[in-house]
Amino acid sequence: MKENKLISTSNEFAANIINLDEKLRHRGKALAIINQLLRSGTSIGANIYEANYAASRADFVNKLQIALKECYETDYWLGLFKNTIIITEEEYADLHKKCSIIRSLLTASIKTAKETI
């Protein structure tokens, strides 16, 4: 089966978010809001994966748009964690770059899918 770059990239990103969650929880950092990052960061891939089993092209686009919104939310939380020094500049830069790549892939996929509706 052909590898789906969007699925593999978002899956790797979710694993990075889970690892960050573990690290922050172990340090006792931002326990009240780390759940928000964990939920949004892992739901990106879940929505992308679900889109592959959509009932229609419109449903496919909708699932990808939800993933894109989750991507923007995740980037917000990452920025907040950076600005409050909960994560380092390096941690932020790495995760922000990965999130941006997913956002670009999602935007291109949504555009392509909409053109075929």
Name of the CATH architecture: Up-down Bundle
Given the helix and strand composition, which structural class is it?
Answer: mainly alpha
CATH H-level homologous superfamily name: 23S rRNA-intervening sequence
Rg result = 15 Å
What is the average of the pLDDT values? Answer: 93
Number of helices: 4
**Low-pLDDT segments:** none
Give a verbal description of the structure.
The structure is a single chain. This protein has 117 residues and is mainly alpha-helical. The protein has one domain: Up-down Bundle (de novo design (two linked rop proteins)), CATH 1.20.1440. 84% of the residues lie in helices and 0% in strands. Helix 1 packs antiparallel against helix 2, helix 1 runs antiparallel to helix 4 and helix 2 runs antiparallel to helix 3.
Quick rundown:
It contains 4 helices and no strands. With 117 residues, it is mainly alpha-helical.
List the helices and strands and how they pair.
Blueprint: H1 5-27, H2 31-51, H3 57-83, H4 89-115
Helix pairs in contact: 1-2, 1-4, 2-3, 3-4
Q: Key terms for this structure?
A:
de novo design (two linked rop proteins); mainly alpha; single chain; 117 residues
